[in-house]
Design goal:
Helix content: 40-55%
Low-confidence stretches: none
Structural class: alpha/beta
Shape: globular
Order of helices and strands: EEHEHEHHH
Number of helices: 5
Strand order of the largest sheet: 1-2-3-4
Number of strands: 4
Mean pLDDT: 94
Distance between the termini: 37 Å
Strand content: 5-15%
Length: 151
Protein backbone atom coordinates (compact mmCIF):
# COMPACT_ATOMS: atom_id res chain seq x y z
CA UNK A 1 0.00 0.00 0.00
CA UNK A 2 1.04 3.57 -0.60
CA UNK A 3 1.74 6.04 2.17
CA UNK A 4 -1.21 8.13 3.31
CA UNK A 5 -2.17 10.99 1.03
CA UNK A 6 -0.91 9.63 -2.29
CA UNK A 7 -2.10 7.20 -4.96
CA UNK A 8 -1.14 3.52 -4.82
CA UNK A 9 0.43 3.62 -8.31
CA UNK A 10 1.34 6.53 -10.60
CA UNK A 11 1.72 6.01 -14.36
CA UNK A 12 3.18 8.50 -16.82
CA UNK A 13 2.62 8.30 -20.58
CA UNK A 14 3.32 10.59 -23.50
CA UNK A 15 -0.30 11.74 -23.95
CA UNK A 16 -1.74 11.22 -20.49
CA UNK A 17 -1.07 10.18 -16.91
CA UNK A 18 -2.96 7.88 -14.60
CA UNK A 19 -3.12 6.63 -11.09
CA UNK A 20 -4.34 3.31 -9.75
CA UNK A 21 -6.10 3.03 -6.44
CA UNK A 22 -6.58 -0.47 -5.08
CA UNK A 23 -8.70 -1.70 -2.20
CA UNK A 24 -9.71 -5.03 -0.74
CA UNK A 25 -12.83 -3.52 0.81
CA UNK A 26 -16.18 -4.60 -0.64
CA UNK A 27 -18.79 -3.43 1.88
CA UNK A 28 -20.04 0.09 2.51
CA UNK A 29 -16.66 0.68 4.17
CA UNK A 30 -15.30 0.87 0.63
CA UNK A 31 -17.24 4.08 0.01
CA UNK A 32 -16.41 5.48 3.44
CA UNK A 33 -12.65 4.75 3.26
CA UNK A 34 -12.03 5.21 -0.47
CA UNK A 35 -14.58 7.67 -1.92
CA UNK A 36 -13.18 11.07 -0.96
CA UNK A 37 -9.52 9.99 -0.70
CA UNK A 38 -9.48 8.58 -4.26
CA UNK A 39 -11.04 11.71 -5.72
CA UNK A 40 -8.67 13.89 -3.69
CA UNK A 41 -5.62 11.85 -4.76
CA UNK A 42 -6.63 12.19 -8.41
CA UNK A 43 -7.19 15.95 -8.07
CA UNK A 44 -3.83 16.41 -6.30
CA UNK A 45 -2.16 14.32 -9.03
CA UNK A 46 -3.84 16.41 -11.75
CA UNK A 47 -2.56 19.59 -10.14
CA UNK A 48 0.97 18.24 -9.70
CA UNK A 49 1.15 16.88 -13.27
CA UNK A 50 -1.08 19.07 -15.47
CA UNK A 51 -1.89 16.62 -18.23
CA UNK A 52 -5.04 14.59 -18.93
CA UNK A 53 -5.26 12.19 -15.97
CA UNK A 54 -7.29 9.07 -15.25
CA UNK A 55 -7.77 6.92 -12.18
CA UNK A 56 -8.36 3.19 -12.23
CA UNK A 57 -10.15 2.22 -9.04
CA UNK A 58 -9.70 -1.51 -8.54
CA UNK A 59 -11.61 -3.64 -6.03
CA UNK A 60 -12.70 -7.27 -5.72
CA UNK A 61 -16.30 -6.04 -5.90
CA UNK A 62 -17.58 -2.49 -6.35
CA UNK A 63 -20.01 -1.18 -3.75
CA UNK A 64 -22.87 0.85 -5.20
CA UNK A 65 -22.22 3.77 -2.83
CA UNK A 66 -18.65 4.00 -4.14
CA UNK A 67 -19.88 3.84 -7.74
CA UNK A 68 -22.44 6.59 -7.05
CA UNK A 69 -19.75 8.83 -5.56
CA UNK A 70 -17.34 8.37 -8.47
CA UNK A 71 -20.17 8.72 -11.00
CA UNK A 72 -20.94 12.18 -9.67
CA UNK A 73 -17.31 13.29 -9.96
CA UNK A 74 -17.13 11.99 -13.55
CA UNK A 75 -20.54 13.14 -14.75
CA UNK A 76 -20.68 16.45 -12.88
CA UNK A 77 -17.58 17.50 -10.96
CA UNK A 78 -15.34 17.29 -7.95
CA UNK A 79 -14.03 20.58 -6.61
CA UNK A 80 -15.21 22.39 -9.72
CA UNK A 81 -13.95 20.06 -12.46
CA UNK A 82 -14.97 16.70 -13.86
CA UNK A 83 -12.74 13.74 -13.11
CA UNK A 84 -11.94 10.59 -15.04
CA UNK A 85 -12.28 7.69 -12.61
CA UNK A 86 -12.87 4.17 -13.92
CA UNK A 87 -14.13 1.66 -11.35
CA UNK A 88 -13.20 -1.91 -12.22
CA UNK A 89 -13.01 -5.26 -10.52
CA UNK A 90 -9.86 -7.34 -10.16
CA UNK A 91 -11.33 -9.71 -12.77
CA UNK A 92 -11.62 -6.79 -15.21
CA UNK A 93 -8.04 -5.74 -14.47
CA UNK A 94 -6.95 -9.27 -15.36
CA UNK A 95 -8.87 -8.98 -18.65
CA UNK A 96 -7.06 -5.71 -19.45
CA UNK A 97 -3.67 -7.27 -18.71
CA UNK A 98 -4.50 -10.38 -20.74
CA UNK A 99 -5.48 -8.19 -23.70
CA UNK A 100 -2.16 -6.34 -23.48
CA UNK A 101 -0.35 -9.68 -23.22
CA UNK A 102 -2.15 -10.85 -26.39
CA UNK A 103 -0.95 -7.74 -28.25
CA UNK A 104 2.62 -8.54 -27.22
CA UNK A 105 2.22 -12.22 -28.21
CA UNK A 106 1.06 -11.09 -31.65
CA UNK A 107 4.26 -9.01 -31.94
CA UNK A 108 2.11 -5.93 -32.24
CA UNK A 109 3.27 -2.75 -30.59
CA UNK A 110 0.99 -1.63 -27.79
CA UNK A 111 0.42 2.11 -27.98
CA UNK A 112 -0.55 3.95 -24.84
CA UNK A 113 -3.15 5.77 -26.94
CA UNK A 114 -5.08 2.47 -27.19
CA UNK A 115 -5.35 2.41 -23.41
CA UNK A 116 -6.36 6.07 -23.37
CA UNK A 117 -9.11 5.37 -25.91
CA UNK A 118 -10.44 2.60 -23.67
CA UNK A 119 -10.38 4.90 -20.64
CA UNK A 120 -12.19 7.63 -22.59
CA UNK A 121 -14.93 5.22 -23.58
CA UNK A 122 -15.42 4.23 -19.95
CA UNK A 123 -15.85 7.82 -18.79
CA UNK A 124 -18.08 8.89 -21.69
CA UNK A 125 -21.22 9.60 -19.72
CA UNK A 126 -23.25 10.51 -22.82
CA UNK A 127 -24.03 6.80 -23.12
CA UNK A 128 -24.89 6.28 -19.45
CA UNK A 129 -28.40 7.02 -18.17
CA UNK A 130 -27.41 7.05 -14.49
CA UNK A 131 -24.99 5.57 -11.98
CA UNK A 132 -26.81 2.24 -11.90
CA UNK A 133 -25.88 1.63 -15.55
CA UNK A 134 -22.29 2.89 -15.38
CA UNK A 135 -20.71 -0.42 -14.34
CA UNK A 136 -22.49 -2.14 -17.23
CA UNK A 137 -21.15 0.55 -19.55
CA UNK A 138 -17.59 -0.06 -18.29
CA UNK A 139 -18.08 -3.82 -18.69
CA UNK A 140 -19.34 -3.37 -22.27
CA UNK A 141 -16.50 -0.95 -23.08
CA UNK A 142 -13.97 -3.51 -21.87
CA UNK A 143 -15.60 -6.27 -23.90
CA UNK A 144 -15.54 -4.13 -27.05
CA UNK A 145 -11.92 -3.08 -26.46
CA UNK A 146 -10.76 -6.67 -25.98
CA UNK A 147 -12.73 -7.81 -29.06
CA UNK A 148 -10.83 -5.26 -31.17
CA UNK A 149 -7.53 -6.49 -29.76
CA UNK A 150 -8.36 -10.13 -30.46
CA UNK A 151 -8.93 -9.41 -34.18
Amino acid sequence: TAPSGVADIECFYEKFNSICEVTTLTSRDQWFNEGQPVMRHLRDFEKKYPKQSYCLFIAPKLHQDTVNTFYNSVKYEYEGEKQKIIPITITQLIAILQAIKLIIKKNRKFAHSELMNFYETCVDMNKVANSQFWLEHVKNSLAEWTRKIEK
